[in-house]
Design goal:
Radius of gyration: 30 Å
Oligomer: single chain
Number of helices: 2
Largest sheet: 8 strands, antiparallel
Shape: elongated
Strand content: 15-25%
Distance between the termini: 121 Å
Helix content: 25-40%
Amino acid sequence: MKSRARQQAGVTLIELLIALTLVAALSAGMLMAMRTSLLTLEKTESRLQSNRRVMGVENILVRQLGGVMPMAGPCAPFFRGTDESLRLVSNYSLSQGARGLPQILEFRVAPAEGGGVRLIVDEHIYSGPASLLPFCASAGAEINKDSFVLGDHLAYCRISYRESVPDSVVSGRWLSAWGRDNLPAAVRVEMAPLIPDPAKLPVVSVTVPIHITRDVRGQYVD
């Protein structure tokens, strides 16, 4: 009797198939859950990176434009701008921050790949008035491998300049170009995304006041 009972013990093929099917279903469910979690994590990380970039661009513009240095040089005034380009010398560097060497900055609005426009900036080390000479006749920054893209896929990007009105409570006008001897009272960079995304921080316009009121061509004595 014991030998016969031992021969009948075991797992049938149907039971084995059922077990394998359950294990496969559980494995597939776990893989789907892991895939969904990874996709959610990737989207969240992408959104956070985009938001950090937007805040970083605003911070960079404030520091670069706010750190403008009045320069006479061989092609005074060196601070010149239009609604699509701007050239200046700043004490803030993207690579070295506020502790590095002054930089010659060239901002330019250029067409973006896939539509819209982009705002780029090129940096060149300022080593004295002679280093400004190659940029006196420059038509604007050209896109190259060292160009830093501040804003991409923008619906528009416009740069404007506020008149400085000394000893007046009335604010100056906003101009689309600047070629005067002295610095403007403020610089405004207006930007808007080409395709708004409610899930991300939008690119916003930045207005940077310039507190330098020094007469560039004036003679200062002790």
